[in-house]
Amino acid sequence: MIRRLAEQLGVHHEALRNWIRQAEADADERHDRPTSEMAEENRRLRREITELRRAGLCETPQSSSSSVYTRWAREAGSQAQEPICKRCRISETGAP
N or C end of the chain, less CB within 10 A? Predict the structure, then answer.
């Protein structure tokens, strides 16, 4: 059915399938992917962290051998939420 509809719309069937899945996630009908709003927030936070790293206000995991990130990484199996940015206090999950 999706293949036939995709042909009628002139799009690839997997593109249509992904659009349907995303619409279901946005309608809170499925929980195996982030909503569009959550995905946009994640992109915004990644850009913000990148800018902070460029400005030297946020450490990168590779350059922080004895930093807070190392302590967080050691406890990765636990619910550790220690910040990776010393000044801005942003954790790996994006939580302050």
Answer: N
* Closest listed residue to residue 19, CA positions, set 9, 88, 58, 44: 9
Q: Note the residue count of the chain.
A: 96
**Tokens representing residue 7 in the block:** 């042909």
Q: Would you call 28 helix, strand, or coil by DSSP? A: coil
Q: For residue 91, list its beta bridge partners.
A: 83
What pLDDT tens digit does each residue of the chain (96 aa) get?
999 999 999 999 999 999 999 999 999 999 999 999 999 999 999 999 889 888 888 766 665 444 555 554 555 554 444 555 555 555 555 555
Q: Crossing angle for the helix pair 36-54 and 13-26, nearest 10 degrees?
A: 90
